[in-house]
From TrEMBL:
Residues spanning the membrane: 311-333
Entry GO MF terms: metal ion binding
Keyword Transmembrane appears in the UniProt entry: yes
Keywords: Copper, Disulfide bond, Membrane, Metal-binding, Signal, Transmembrane, Transmembrane helix
InterPro entries linked: SCO1/SenC, Thioredoxin-like_sf
Region of interest: Disordered: 57-100
Organism from which the protein derives: Desulfomicrobium baculatum (strain DSM 4028 / VKM B-1378 / X) (Desulfovibrio baculatus)
Covalent S-S links between cysteines: C155-C159
Domain of life: Bacteria
SUPFAM superfamilies from the UniProt entry: Thioredoxin-like
Family according to the record: Belongs to the SCO1/2 family.
Residues binding Cu cation: C155, C159, H247
Tagged with keyword Transmembrane helix: yes
Protein's name according to its UniProt entry: Uncharacterized protein SCO1/SenC/PrrC
Length: 342
């Protein structure tokens, strides 16, 4: 029995011994790996700890700004420092800073219309050419009561109408033309010529039913500067629109001294109005301003874009006049009652 047991042990010992030695070998290898891993983990832990170490304080003198690149030097982001030239563009030289563009002040538009200048004097020094091509001044022309008619000779509408209307009413004026009064048509178109003025005069003189003296109706042309000087002194505002003009329709009565005494509006002045205007001009007497009367009686409606009769203002004025008359009547009646009877 013992022999059999001994034989069994001898036969099985190599197989038992081998696993034990292999196990020891494996344990040694695992121990080595564990030691290596522990060393690696320790190194990683040290590195992680190093990342959490507090950074040294910044230099406050330099501020929080990023370092500035030198001229032409590329920054960390790859852009060249603004205001500096890169090496590739160094050959172009410095470019001048463009000067600020200054826009000229807009020219004010000339107002269109009439600014009445009653009692003021016309520009006597303004120079024109008459229908014969002779250079004259307004002081030389205006030597008697004068009806000044601002027109332009190529106008096919209102200018032609107003001058045609004058040919119809001038024979009815109760004054002697060329002596007691005269008419002067002044063109505000600087492109009109004395030749065109002579043509206009011949046409309108021929259209009248009676013989009108040559010096009774003058036609003047001039350059832009003198035209503006005269028209501004008359309060006549106009503006060129292409080949035509925007302008009011009015004539002015001027005294022999050049004083403006009356404005007559419309394309068809009456012979009576012309007679009165020339008479007032001869006496240097300023006439009634029709424009001021109309401005008092009418008010402009901006919504309807029209003039409306100012009923309240006229009614109020009428009531005040009636009350004034009644008050004066009561005062006079009271005085009569207090007068003792003889």
């Amino acid at each position: 029995m013992r022999s059999a047991l001994l034989v069994f042990i001898l036969l099985t010992w190599p197989s038992v011994a081998f696993p034990q030695s292999a196990l020891h070998t494996a344990r040694d290898a695992a121990a080595a790996v564990t030691a290596h891993d522990h060393s690696t983990a320790q190194q990683a832990d040290e590195a992680l700890h190093a990342e959490h170490v507090e950074a040294p304080p910044k230099d406050h003198a330099a501020g929080d700004r990023a370092p500035v690149a030198a001229p032409g030097e590329a920054t960390d982001s790859g852009f060249v420092k603004p205001g500096a030239m890169s090496a590739d563009h160094a050959g172009h030289g410095e470019q001048p800073v463009p000067a600020e563009h200054v826009h000229p002040a807009p020219v004010a538009e000339t107002s269109i219309g009439v600014t009445e200048k009653l009692g003021e004097f016309i520009a006597a020094e303004a120079r024109f050419f008459d229908e014969g091509g002779k250079a004259v001044t307004m002081a030389e022309i205006v030597d008697k009561p004068t009806i000044i008619v601002p027109v332009y000779f190529s106008c096919p509408n209102v200018c032609a109408i107003i001058q045609s209307s004058l040919t119809a009413v001038l024979p009815d004026v109760k004054l002697e033309p060329g002596v007691d009064f005269q008419v002067v048509s002044v063109s505000f178109d600087d492109t009109d010529t004395p030749t065109l003025a002579a043509h206009q005069k011949n046409n309108y003189m021929a259209a009248m039913d009676f013989t009108f003296p040559e010096n009774g109706w003058r036609f003047l042309t001039g350059d832009e500067a003198n035209i503006r000087k005269l028209m501004d002194s008359l309060g006549f505002g106009f503006r060129r629109e292409g080949k035509d003009f925007l302008h009011p329709v009015v004539v002015m009565a001027v005294s022999p001294k050049g004083k403006i005494v009356r404005y007559l509006y419309g394309t068809r002045p009456l012979a009576f109005d012309l007679t009165m205007a020339a008479t007032e001009a001869d006496k240097e007497r300023i006439g009634l301003s029709v424009k001021r009367v109309l401005a008092y009686c009418f008010s402009y409606d901006p919504e309807g874009k029209r003039y409306a009769f100012n009923f309240m203002k006229i009614t109020g004025t009428g009531i005040l006049l009636i009350l004034a008359v009644l008050l004066v009547s009561l005062v006079l009646a009271g005085r009569k009652k207090r007068t003792p009877r003889n």
